[in-house]
Automatic annotation (TrEMBL), chains A, B:
Domain of life according to the entry: Bacteria
Full protein name: CinA-like protein
Entry's family note: Belongs to the CinA family.
Residues of the MoaB/Mog domain: 4-171
InterPro entries linked: CinA, CinA-like_C, CinA_C, Competence-induced_CinA, MoaB/Mog-like_dom_sf, MoaB/Mog_dom
Annotated gene: pncC
SUPFAM superfamilies in the record: CinA-like, Molybdenum cofactor biosynthesis proteins
Length: 423, 423
C-alpha cells in the first residue's frame, strides 16, 4: 500500500504555523508499520488543489488530505475534489441535520456559512466527525482513495483513529503484525545514544529509531512480523541495560506522564515551588485528569519577596547565596512541603536566559531540590543555554526525574551525560 | 515568480522531527512578499528524488531544495539532481580544498565520506556555505532554478539570507511591496467571524485569512502592491469595528504576549492564583524574558487546603459556595493580591474535566476574578467542554483579557459570543 499525504492551507504552507498534524500523522502510521511515502503541502488556491488531487491520485493507493473543510471562503477541499472528479457538489442531508442538532444542542445559531460544510462531491462516502462541524469524506480517483480530514488537530486525531485506520486495515488487509516499544531518555545526546546502541545486533524485521522531542529523546523499537515480535523483549532488555540512568520511562509520552501514573491513586501528595520553570512542572501534571488527587499546590515564587513570604525562605539565605543556589532551592522545597504537610515537594531556581547570566552563574545554571519527610536532596546543574524554553523544560524533567528516583528507592541525584554539574 | 520548496529526508517525512525549516523558510519569504506556492516532502529514495526534481521543475521558477547534502549514504540530493539532469557528478576542487581547510583548522581528520560532499552535478553553480561542510549549489532544469541547501537549520538560514535572497532579488527583479496586519480574537467561532467580516469589500491585492490557534482565532489582512497597502489602514479599521469585543490584540502571537508587552517596564505588578488553569497563565507569561519585572508570583492552589492556608480564603466561603464559585475565586484573587501587595491579581477556579462535573456545575464551568487596589471583579462562564486543555486555555485567555480591559480602562466583564454565562 502506497500512502501519501496532502496538507492544505495557506497558514501551513506559508509557515504561519508549523505542521504538527503532518508529523503526528506520519508518526502514528509508522507506529502501525505503514510509511507515509510522499507529502505535498499546498495553499488555498482552487486550481492548485485540483491539480494535486489529480496528479497524486495516479501514484498513491491512499492519500490522507488534511484541512480545508471549514466554513470559510478559503476552505476549498470539497469543491476542489468535486472539480477534480468532474462531479457536482451535493448537499449531504444527514450531515446538515447533524450540524443543526450540533448547534441546537449548544444553543448557538447555525450560520449561513456552516451550510457549506454539508456539501460533498457526488460520489463521496461520508466519514463521521463526532467532535466538530467539518464533515469528513472519502472518494476514489484514479488509483487512489482520497480521505478528507479536518485541520483542527483533535478532530483529525479522532477521525484517523476511529475511521481512517479501520478503513485502511479493511481495504488493504494489512497482514503483518507489528509491535512497538518506546523508551524515553533524558540527558543524553542523540549521537551518544547512537554510539551506545548501534552495536546491538537487530534481528530481521526489528528496527530502531530515534525521535528528539525536547526534553526527551525517545528510542523506538519497531517489530514487524511474529519473528521480530518474539525477539522484542530480549532486545528491549539489552537497550535498557545500555541506557542505564538515561532511561526514565517506557511507553509514555513524557516523564510528567510517568510521575502522574505513579502518584495518581497512590495516596501520596506533592507540592511544587517553581522559580525559573515558572509553573511548567505543575502545568504538565495538571494536564492529566486526576492530578488533583495528589497535587496539593504549585507555587510560582518568581520574586525573592514571594520566596520569603510564601515559602518562608530566610532572607539571610537569599542574601548570602542568591536565589539560584543549593541553599535557596533547598529552603524553597522544604517550605513548600511543610505548608500543607505534603509527602514530597520539588523546587527549582535558575537562570533561564537569555539575560540575567553572570560569570559565576551563566544562563543555564539551575538549582533543583526534592524535599521528603526525611530531608532535602538538591543539586545544581549547568544546562545547554540554547533557549529559554529548553532550559525550563530540561529543568522540569530533571526535577521530575529526582522524584521518580525517590519513588523507586533509587539514588536521587545522578549524573546526566550531556549536562555538567556546577560547583 | 513561482516559488516552491522540496524538503528531503526520511526523518521529516516520517514525523520523527517536525519540519521547522519549512515553516521558517516560508515565513521568511512571505515577509519579503514572496509566497511559497507548493511544497513537497520526500524521503531518501533516489528515484523519488529524481522524479520530484523533474516534475516540479516544469511548474516552478525557483525551487529551494532542503537537505540531503551531508556525508552519509542516505544523503542523495546531489546524485539525484545529476541523474535528473542526465549529467555526471564532478568533483568541485574549490570545495574539496575548502573542506580540507575546514577540518585542518579544527584539527579533525577529514573522513572518506566527506569527500562525497564536493561532488556536484556538472552544470551546477557552487553556492558557498561558510558555516558547514555541505556545499550548496544551484542548477537550471526545465523552467526552474533548483537551489540546494543544507538541512542543518542554522546553515540553511545563513545560506538563505546571504545567498538565496540576493539571488532571487537579482534574477527576478522583485517589485510588489507587501504588508501584513494580524488581528487576534477570542470568544468567537470562525464561522461567526466569517459572517461578520465576509461582507467587507476588499480591494484588489488585499486578502483576508483566518488562522485558528486555540484559544485564539487570528485574522490576517495581507496587502500586495502599493494600492492595497494604501487601503490597508481603512480596511483594518472596518475589521476592528466589526470585531468589537472579540478583538484582543494586534500583531501579537497571543494575549499573553499582549499582556507581557503592557506590563513589562510599566512598574505595575501582578500575582496569579490558579486552580483549574494550573499554572498555565503564569507559565505563558514566564515564557517571555523580562516577565520577572512585573510577575510577583503565581500560586497554583489546587487543593482547598491550599486555598485556605496560602491565599487565606475563608473555609466558610468554600463550605458555603464550593471551590468553583464567584465567592471563592474573588477571595482567591484578593488573597493573592494582598500577599505581596501587587497592583493586580488574577484567579481561576473551574471544572476542567473530563470528570468532576455536576448538574449545577458541569465540565467547562469556570469562575475567574481580577483583584485591583479598588476591589474585585469576577464572573463565572460556561466554556465548551471539548477537552481539558481547551477549557484551561480559554480560561487563561479570558482571565488575561479581564486584565487587559482593566489596563485600558474598559469594562472588565464582557460577553463573549461563543461562551455562555452561568447563573
Amino acid at each position: 500500500m502506497k500512502l501519501e499525504m496532502i496538507c492544505t492551507g495557506e497558514e501551513v504552507l506559508s509557515g504561519q504555523i508549523v505542521d504538527t498534524n503532518a508529523a503526528w500523522f506520519a508518526n502514528t502510521m509508522m507506529e502501525m508499520g505503514v510509511e507515509v511515502q510522499h507529502r505535498v503541502t499546498v495553499g488555498d488556491r482552487l486550481e492548485d488543489l485540483v491539480h494535486v488531487f489529480q496528479e497524486r491520485s495516479k501514484y498513491a493507493d491512499v492519500i490522507l488530505v488534511n484541512g480545508g473543510l471549514g466554513p470559510t471562503s478559503d476552505d476549498l477541499s470539497s469543491e476542489a475534489m468535486a472539480k477534480a472528479l468532474s462531479e457536482p457538489l451535493i448537499e449531504n442531508v444527514e450531515w446538515r441535520e447533524h450540524m443543526e442538532a450540533w448547534f441546537s444542542k449548544r444553543s448557538h445559531p447555525m450560520t449561513q456559512s456552516n451550510l457549506k460544510q454539508a456539501f460533498l462531491p457526488q460520489s463521496a462516502v461520508m466519514v463521521d466527525n463526532p467532535v466538530g462541524t467539518a464533515c469528513g469524506f472519502r472518494v476514489k480517483l484514479n488509483r487512489a482513495w482520497l480521505f478528507f480530514t479536518p485541520g483542527v488537530p483533535f478532530e483529525l486525531k479522532q477521525m484517523v483513529q476511529e475511521q481512517f485506520i479501520p478503513f485502511i486495515r479493511q481495504e488493504f488487509s494489512l497482514k503483518d503484525k507489528t509491535a512497538l516499544t518506546k523508551l524515553l531518555t533524558i540527558g543524553h545526546g542523540e549521537s551518544l545514544l547512537a554510539d551506545k546502541l548501534e552495536t546491538i545486533d537487530l534481528p530481521d524485521g526489528l528496527t530502531m529509531g530515534y525521535r528528539s522531542s525536547m526534553p526527551h529523546i525517545e528510542i523506538k523499537l519497531f517489530a514487524r512480523g511474529q519473528h521480530a515480535i518474539d525477539k522484542l523483549p530480549s532486545i528491549t532488555e539489552q537497550v535498557r541495560s545500555r541506557l542505564g540512568q538515561a532511561l526514565v520511562a517506557e511507553n509514555r509520552a513524557s516523564i510528567a506522564e510517568e510521575i502522574h501514573a505513579r502518584l495518581n491513586g497512590s495516596g501520596l501528595s506533592l507540592s511544587i515551588a517553581e522559580s525559573c520553570t515558572g509553573g511548567m512542572i505543575a502545568s504538565q501534571l495538571i494536564s492529566f485528569p486526576g492530578s488533583s488527587s495528589y497535587l496539593h499546590q504549585g507555587l510560582v515564587t518568581y520574586s525573592n519577596e514571594s520566596k520569603v513570604k510564601v515559602l518562608g525562605v530566610p532572607a539571610q539565605v537569599l542574601d548570602d547565596h542568591g536565589a539560584v543556589s543549593i541553599e535557596t532551592v533547598a529552603q524553597m522545597a522544604k517550605g513548600a512541603r511543610e505548608l500543607l504537610d505534603s509527602d514530597y515537594a520539588l523546587a527549582t531556581s535558575g537562570v533561564a536566559g537569555p539575560e540575567g547570566g553572570t560569570e559565576q552563574k551563566p544562563v543555564g545554571t539551575v538549582a533543583i531540590a526534592l524535599a521528603t519527610r526525611d530531608g532535602v536532596k538538591s543539586q545544581i546543574v549547568q544546562l545547554p543555554r540554547r533557549s529559554r524554553d529548553l532550559v525550563r523544560s530540561l529543568s522540569s524533567a530533571i526535577a521530575l526525574d529526582m522524584l521518580r528516583r525517590e519513588l523507586l528507592g533509587e539514588e536521587v541525584v545522578v549524573d546526566y551525560a550531556s549536562f555538567s554539574r556546577s560547583a
